[in-house]
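Email to the structure team, subject: N-terminal domain of galactosyltransferase model.

Hi all, the expression group asked for a predicted structure before they design truncation constructs. Nothing fancy, just the tokens so they can compare against earlier work. One-line instruction: predict N-terminal domain of galactosyltransferase, return tokens.
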Amino acid sequence: MLTVAGNDWSGLDGVRPTEPPTVSVVVPYYRAQAQLDLVLAGLAAQTHPATRLQVVVADDGSPEPPVVGPGVVVVRHEDRGFRAAAARNLGARAAEGEVLLFVDGDTVPEPAYVAELAALPALLPDALVTGRRRHADLTGWTPDRLRAWFAGGPAPEELTEPAWLREAGSLLDADDRSYRFVISAVMGTSRALFREVGGFDETFDGYGGEDWELAHRLFTAGAVLAHRERAVAWHDGPDWGLRGDDPVAARREKNAETRSLARLLPDPAARGVGGWWRHPDVVVRMTPGGDVDATVLGVRSLLAAGLDLQVWGVDPSVVDDDPRVHAGEPPPPVLARCRTQVTLSGPLRWAPGGLAGLVAQVRPGGVGRVTGVVDGVQVEVAATRALRRCARWGVDMSTLFGEAQVDVPAEPLGEHPDVAHWLPRL
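Reply from the structure team: attached below.
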């Protein structure tokens, strides 16, 4: 299966599959038939072969089911409030295409939307692609008027396109914060990758945030981010930030989104400092030392590293049941979100900034893994996204991300270290 090094999909720019892929487009919907009529008319006008295109409308509990044309699949769940994430997952479960695309129920795709957005995931199953969302006033528009526009007729009034989305560029140089440029209104990936990560997090029960969380989780799983400007869909109305809503209500809505993201997304810029989180940025697996004193100092040195970090493999009772220390293995939801994984075959005392420096080396733009040895203690620091993608395809780390041997900025603790001496110096 085709894969690429890092995030460099440039060799596939403009390439099309020899055969159009099978594509499923999921459209979340709630009680907006006129807007849905336009979206379905746009999907019926696609240049992608209709025989290889499935449309799934996922109804988020409307009082009456949507009216759709022949061949369109409708799936519904009960009304339990705003559940766009759950509705999209419901639609994705009914999807049969090898490529899975999303377009919102108020966002009308241009005729080339499916072909442009699906091409890269069809060639590169690791791809997570976002299209271009433009804005227009479609009030009172009909499917006939829409078809006339796409055939070269009069266009609607175009509204301001958000600058922050235009700043995405190609995303060839995607970093840990590029998830912010992925929006579920115009998004696509392979169905296999979407299902591997479990889809959208259904704990999101309000407007916004679920697409950024999914994009971060996909990137952490080794996804290759790309922005395809030629995959255009038109949102009916202005962007959320330009709607002129009540400022207090808008601020409350945005704050709720920020809190939800901080809970799940281990980006320091998203969650700030000073909190305790169930999903840390850095996961450390540490083999305990030969005695409890070395283990205590080794754990305390890790916790003093200034990182959003938790430790697994150590009995928490030896450090007074610190909630950041755990026996056993890190659970799957933690591993799905942490950006970095550290493995230590024994405890070490880290130099100030030492561990943070190694972690920085495996961020995007660096290598996938660094390793070293300190007096017999094996040290490995690796990017989760590199580990996941290499494991998915059985490819060597050095081929896709690179790796390096390093001098580890730490020292061994030995047996029975002087705890009173070292604790103030960690």
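Residues 284 and 342 are 5 Å apart (CA to CA). The chain has two domains: 10-271, 282-425. Ping us if the truncation boundaries need rechecking.
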